[in-house]
Amino acid sequence: MTEFYLIRHGQTTANALGLKQGTINDERTYLSVRGKQQALALARHFHPANLTALYVSPLHRTRQTAEIVNAALRLPVTVDERLLEISYGDWDGQSNAKLMQAYPDLFYPLINDVRPNYAATAHGERFTDVEERVRNFTATVVKRQPHDRVLVVTHGFTVRSFAANTTGAQGLALLEPANCSITKIVVEPQTGAQHLIYYNRVIDSQF
Q: Is 41 strand, coil or helix?
C-alpha cells in the first residue's frame, strides 16, 4: 500500500490579501512570515517514520515549504508539474472579493469560492482537469513505489482534488484545506482503490 501525506504550502502574502493565486509565481506568492512559522511548526511536530520521497509542485511557495519541512528529513526531492495549483486563468492574481462582486453567479456565497462553471468565463482550468492530472500523478507514484510512504507538498485546490478523487466529492463539497495542513490518503497498488484517512489536519490543534 502506498501512503501519501499531502501538505498544503504555508501562508503567502496573496493568501493574506485574499487574492486568487492560481499559478502566479511572484513575490506576492512567496511565504509570508506567518507562512514560514507554519512550515517550521510542521517540521518540528510532523515527522512520520519511514518516508522515502518528497514530491513538490514547481511553484516558489511550495518549494519554500518543502525546503523547511525537509531540512531534517533529507528526503530525495522530485518536482512534478502535475502538482501545480489550479490555474484561474484571467483571474489569477485578482481580488477574490472583487470577483465575487462582479460574478456572483459563479461563486458559492456561503464559502466565498468559485463554482465549477467559473472556468469558461475566467478561461481557467476546470476542476475535472486538476483531478485528472492528480489522478495521473497518483497512479505514477503507486506504480513506482507500491509499498512506500511519500510526502507531497502542493496547493490547496490540488489537495482537495486528491481527496475528491478518493471520495467522489463534487464541486467544493470538500473545501480547500488550511495552509500547512496535512491530508493522508492510501492507495492499494493491486486494485488502485483509494482511501481517505484524514483531511485538513492542522498542527496547532490536531498533532
A: helix
Which residue intervals of the chain are DSSP H helices? 13-17, 33-45, 60-73, 96-102, 118-122, 127-144, 156-167, 203-206
Of 76, 71, 61, 81, the closest CA to residue 7 belongs to 61
Q: Can you give the pTM of this predicted structure?
A: 0.95
Per-residue pLDDT of the chain (207 residues; tens, 9 = 90+): 999 999 999 999 999 999 999 999 999 999 999 999 999 999 999 888 899 999 999 999 999 999 999 999 999 999 999 999 999 999 999 999 999 999 999 999 999 999 999 999 999 999 999 999 999 999 999 999 999 999 999 999 999 999 999 999 999 999 999 999 999 999 999 999 999 999 999 976 544
Q: How many CB atoms lie within 10 A of CB 187?
A: 20
CA separation for the pair 23, 83 (Å, rounded): 11
Q: Cell 502574502 identifies what position?
A: 13
